[in-house]
Description:
Maltoporin, Chain A, 26-stranded mixed sheet, globular
Amino acid sequence: MRKILNCILLITSINYSTTLYGQNEQSWEECYDEIHSIDGQEDVNTEADYDVLSELASHPININTATREDLESIPFLSSQQVESIMEYIYKYHTMQSLGELHMITNLDDVYARLLSYFIYIGNPPEKGFPHIGEILRYGKNEIVATTSIPTYKRDGYTNGDYQGSNIKHWLRYTFSFGNIIKFGFTGAQDAGEPFFKGKNKLGYDYYSYYLMLRNLGKLKSLVVGRYRLKFGMGLVINNDYSFGKLATLQTLGRSTNSIREHSSRSEANYMQGTAATVSISKGLDITGFVSYRDIDATPNKDSLSTLATITGNGYHRTVSEMARKHNTSIFAGGGNIRYFNNGFHIGMSAIYSSLNRELRPDTARIYKRWSAYGKRFWNAGVDYGYICGKFSFNGETATGDSHAVATINSLSYKLLGNLQIMALQRFYAYRYYGMYANSFSDAGSIQDESGIYLGINWNISRHTTVMMYTDYAYFAWPKYMQSFPETHSWDNMIQLVYNKKQFSLLARYRLKIKQRDNASKTALDNVNEHRGRFQLGYVIGNIQSRSQADIVYSQQQTGSLGYMLSQSIFYKYHWISAAASIGYFHTADYQSRVYTYERGVMYNFSFPAFSGEGIRYSINLRTDINKNIMMIARVGTTDYLDRSVISSGPQQIRGSSQTDVDLQLRYKF
Length: 669
């Protein structure tokens, strides 16, 4: 009987695979952008977040050997989806085809397609730890070298403000052995930073390195070097993946613990030292970590021994930027204990951190009145949750040296087989702060915010999904550009996604109402922002086409209208592929700016914003010379029709056009 059932599953999954792979020439970035991004704004598409998914795509997980922690490392999966995948593997032992993803409960067509980029079908592992000879023989090495060359000069280079050349470049090496061992090294250089001179005598301005071990008996994970952490829902510590409002609806506000290597070129939000998770008994894990690293900070003008702000953009181009490089150090240590059993989990987290110089922000500015202040900080919290069939609940409550409280709680219920509803509540006291806290918020910080979020995820059919949410937030204390207390924000979105064989459609509308100071700062104005997107995609043979229209209307006393019309085409023939795009944009000002996705080189964030009037076009050529060598050449140009200079200050370009050339070489062995 089991053989007959497996045969039926295999035949059905092959049929599904035809549809799944008929669309797989679409990049995972485009697929992810369809269902998660809201014009590049609130979904926090930072370089480090993008790098998490890029790394997963380059080193996919063997679904047949994946542990719960492995699946939870895929950030867009909800807790119910993780449970459903685990149940499916347990029931049928192995998956034979990626088409079986369509047969897993709680995993619709859209997310089955997205997940297919980050997993592969492999054989179950042999028991026992592999010996060193096996690791060296079967381990996979990857070297990626990338450079970005502008064809223009910014004023910062001609007047000597920038100390380095205008060429941006980086080098990345990764060694991996299954899901067990990963070692990596990254060296990166931003344009304008000195290379093998000045304070960068060792070459690159930034280096990252790590050794990651997973699933070694009781040792679930161990990292040495640079890494990122997340416990619970992020009120104590989360410098791992960030999520915005639409993605939160899909993941249903899940609570996870993770240790992840820091392979990104991002110079902020990482730890440096070691961290480990050990399984004490079934369902009981303990994690400990310690970190010490140098960071960039801006000293106070009246007291150089104290700090005004901690900076994280990583730029060290000018003398003043270089003076801030690694001028402060921070120590952090802590841990988490977590118990999971039959869908129930509870955990406790704590962190202590210490600066070598006192942080003393300008609290005379009313919106900084309750910012973190001092040299030593601590936070502790409890996270909790329960998953049972159609119902899930997650939450976390935390406090710290501020003696204030923050709490976030989410509740989801599968009302029908294809209809999921979700509610999320958060309260962050205006005195609460966490040096490493990062969780769901409207204003972007875990401080001074209370609100309620309601969402619906409706799979109308196997090919059609409707997602919508409404989110209301209240702020007790004045904020930047809000000089009065008791302000609010109201955010609403509805999105339709349709995918069937060679055709896809996306329609999205968003309305956000927030408050800002008027010109004289005597009262608050409502700022109404409308954003819409309509996108059509079609596949004919080896050609994939996408047409997109974006429109923005922002109003604060006066209105600001912007739009962008764009067309992209992707073609693949055996070992060579080409992508080309062109778009016309016209916006009244920066308030009505538009965002779009562009296919770029690997490990490089490419969701640019456009304002003013102009034409954007790019072409991307990729050739896979053999199974080991891949090359990418990309050229992108923006021609502005409304100006004779671009940008200002050291970044100013004396001309109306800017063209960048990206070159990348990847070698696997």
